Amino acid sequence: MGDSNYSKAYIQTLIDELKTSKIYTDLQCAAQVEIAKPTLRLSELKKGVLNGLVNSGWDRKLRNAIYRFLQTHPKLQFPSPPPEHLKEPLVFLRKAQQAWEKRILKSLNSMCTDLNIPLARKRPEKEQKEWAQKWTELGIDGPDADFGWEACQGCAYLSQFRPVYAPKDFLEVIIGLQNPNYHGSDTPGFYHLWGIVQVPLKVKDIDELRLQYSDMSINQCQSGIDDAQDIPSELFEQERVKLGKKVINTNHGPLAQEFSKKGCPTSMRATLWCQILAVELDEIDILYYEQLKTNVLQHDLLVDSLLYKDVKLTATNDDQYFVFEDFLYQVLLPFSRDTYVLNHFDYNSASPPKSYIRGRLGMDEFAVNYPPNGVIPFHGFAMYVAPMCFLYKETITLYYVFREMYVRYFFRLHSISSHPQGIVGLSLLFESLLQTHESDLFFHLKSVGCQPLKVAFKWLVRAFSGYLSSDQVLLLWDRVLAYNSLEILAVLAVAIFSFRKTNLMKVQSYNAAEAVLADLTTLQVIPLIQLSLFSK
């Protein structure tokens, strides 16, 4: 009886979600068009309307809409009562996340005080016009250029800004996580780890991962290996592309996701990602982006300078991504104003930061989300966007694909939670796999003062963007989308340590170990993952 009631509630919740979406309004309009057709008989009204909607592709649109809701709303994904990690995260983890958020806000407010600038201000009309004219060249005319910034921000040059935090700061917080009610000896199934993450979360073992990623096994052909230039195309690539075209023509997200488990052909990746993420742009989406752009032109936020600083420190200094600097600003600045992003806090342990209208400090009725999307950028944030610049020539498409990637996956990489794909779970999975399958390597590194996670953590937080070559990042993200899981990041991190094991066993210090693992740009990720998971 309980399961039946839950299923009814589940279906009703899904219907309610659809009714509040734009696709519901579009469906009503399409139905009205069908009803107005003179060939439709009144006696066959229902059947005629349904057939008309199916013939015009609405069955596919609805399937994709439902698929998207299930992907972005974890509470809707389970026909039986949801698992514990979605009911109530471990209390001490939620408290740790809250303390971390306060620390970030304190850092942000300190920056305002030190530089004598506000969190937000309205741009003068002249400056708004200058911004509109320079919108596609913001990399040239940024905060250090002379069109309003210096005078309006108290001569606060970009060089004076500093990242609110970096991955190494976040790692210190995770290392310090301790459950006051937990004692390893009291809990069957858990043991005191050699690693530095001491949180009693259940993570998958190698057998579970092999089953999950079975389509990546060594005897399965893969995009990224078997379509290489030195391999005759008739052996794999031609058939793969032929099948890919059929998948794309169906325009069905789950089918595109299943196809991508063996990787996406380069020429089809952009389209397949859009289908998996249910990104189908229309005039409303274009107008929405233009409104976000207008918000950027009208108001200057402190986080704008943080985003500029981050792009300058990361993508602009990278030989692969510096050409996309303008693209990055055109995505990241509107993103900071996008209140749609707030929806991900419904299934996130984090909370959007609050600020107060001047003179109303502490009065809840005058509290506002700051920034409007609730996300304070950190050092490396721009690298979530950079690899996707290779896929999309149109800024608006790039924007919506990045937004979906963030609200589905990337937010988990910089918030504390008990979710198995959160950064705590991924860190624990990495340490667990490495000490189980490379125990001699793990013990050696630990004995010379190099905890492996201290090296790998930055890879995990940035989903390897900026560390691997761009084509390898895209192949890796193919699998993140295809398997709807970030756990492959931890698997790859372990694989890299295994691959460099011979040299790592010779090091005698943390710096030496870091040097061995400094350059990952020559690595081929798919063979490494296959060897790590499936070789004996």
From TrEMBL:
Record bears the keyword NAD: no
InterPro entries attached to this UniProt entry: Rab-GAP-TBC_dom, Rab-GAP_TBC_sf, TBC1D19
Residues annotated as transmembrane: 381-402, 480-499
Keyword Cell membrane in annotation: no
Keyword terms: Membrane, Transmembrane, Transmembrane helix
The Rab-GAP TBC domain, residue ranges: 263-484
SUPFAM superfamilies reported in the protein's UniProt record: Ypt/Rab-GAP domain of gyp1p
PROSITE patterns with a match to the protein in the record: TBC_RABGAP
Pfam families referenced in this protein's UniProt entry, alphabetically: RabGAP-TBC
Protein name: Rab-GAP TBC domain-containing protein
